[in-house]
Amino acid sequence: NTYTGPTSWNGGQLYIRGDSAFGSGGELLLNPSATTYNIILRGDWLTSRLIYAVAQAGLQTNGYDATWSGQFVGGAALDKYGNGRLALTEAMPYTGALTVNAGAVVLKDRGSIAANTGTLTVNAGAALTLDDTATHFSDRLPDNNGSITLRGALTLLGNSSVTTEEVISTLLVSPNVASTITVAPGSGQAAILRLAGTTSVGGTSLWRGTNLGLNAPGSADSASILLTPGTTGAFQLVGGSAPNGHPSVSIIRGGFGDTTASGLGTQFVTYDAVKGVRLLDPATEYTTTITNGSVVTDNVKADGTALALGNATTANALWLRNGGRLNGAGVLTLTSGNLLVTGTGNTISAPLDLNGTALSVGGSGDVTISGGISGSNSLFKQGAGTLTWQSTLTSITRTVLGGGVIALGGSGVLLGDAFFQGGEIRNVSGAPLSSPVNLTLYSTMKVGGAQDISFTGPVGLGYADREINVTNTGVTTLSGVISSSQTLINYGLTKTGPGRLVLASAANTYDGETTVSEGELRVTGSIATSTLTTVRGGTLSGMGTVGKLTLQSGVLAPGTSVGTLNCGDLLFSGGLFAVEIASAVFADKMMVTGSAGLGASTELGLIPLALSDPQIGDTWVIVDNDGTDAFATGPYRFTHDGAPIEAGTPFAVGGKFYALNYHGGTGNDVVLTATVPEPGTAALLVAALPLLTRRRCKSPLPFGA
Hints:
With 705 residues, this protein is mostly beta strands.
């Protein structure tokens, strides 16, 4: 567009591919008539125009990046959705509430919202990054007003020429999710994050940074997280309030720390009045013994040893290392709820009491829990290690997976609500497992293991396109309804990993795109509300219903053996269309409601099953096109071994000959017919028969389905 006046967006979903959508000049007024309306990107958006927030609005970056280098003003709320980032590169006088629901908001160059008096919320799976790397600017967030509610990630990236220091007025770390605070100094410099107002910490939190808390604040190559002088009562420290170097030193409830900017946590953390947030000293701030039946405020370590309890015992926190064991009939109450595991072979068979707090498990090691848990309804899993459940924990109704692995063994299942913010879930029970859990995906959902696992509760796509990565060699099934956290904003689903994922619900409602990139996506229910399903490297199979469908690469294999897959518009643009023949009557078929055709040459893989025995004259409709619109071929054809299959021209598979009619059936269907070879081909067939027979045994489907 070339108009030069202002643009007022007053309602409806607005899709744009760049700044030219709003003309060649003039300000942009965000003034939608309802909070459900959003600007949805279809490309990167770089703008220097003035943007005025008149009414609450949404920006769905949709995997693209938006960069605002002009003034952003006004006091109305702005909600950021979708993967991708919104970068603010100038000091903005914006004063409204900013909520980052997914993706990232980045303050870089001279980007700042220090004048903001509203609330800043970073939700689970989202990030706020203060990027000082290219241009040093030390006041990006409000010092003395406003607040930050953190349910996701907060990162301070330092400058390599000067010390980077940022002051935050109030930081509230949510009690219900996994949060990460990262401070990364520039090379040879320091980076300091100061908290000036009331700070509370709940849930599970990861505090990390280069040499975090090891050196005096301001030291080269060192990160520090400090309270400003006079700020008290922060971090919900739990323990005996002992001085540094004592096993009763208090720790941050649910907190773990790492002295690198990318680590997943190696120790509990405390707050030091001089060095700020720091990791505990493994040598002096744990005790290795605990008296059976005692009540202590110590942090306890079992390093390759067993803690045997016959009576109720209380300690502040527990570290199991290299085969550390907690056993016996006595209940151990963990006042902080913190459990650190490092190394392998760690076990807990004794019952645990969390005394009303959440169980937070972190560290790089593995632990198996077979005892009961009481006194809590929440489990938080952080760190790179593996937590194995060996029993059904009916008391745990909220699970947050922030890192590592939760492995379900024995009768272990997840109940209530589970939130993916990272990490992987596995079935290691040795048998198929069904878990009636309600899932919300704030990051990639990873499913591993070697056994069938089914999730029967609803699945929510948290404010962005989400990925399900399946390495499980068994079958992974989602039988609950998959829905977007909002309607009309196009959150989609991508299947990755070599395993098979089955979507079984007939009532899925998510309306974004579905992409099959790896492995197999089997649809036995319906994803008809998905705006487009694209096969791009994996296999799409099943006997359910998809919406508009494009095969670009990979395999389209209707059926679960031989069967029909229903779709809307169908476009073959490459890849392999795999069709199994079961008998003179039954073969795989695509049932199309809409248009159908070829947009590029596409390989046709025929797989006559062992007992099918096709006979001359047998016919199968392999693309059943509704209505009267023709199957569009243009210059393209299905191919066999790379050679175009012209209408009526026989081609050989497994010693039999077949022909295609691109305008068969009711005149617009693709029909396959068993036929006779062309004259002069019979002799060649006799010579080639051994080769064709060997080829018949090969299936193009990765799962042989």
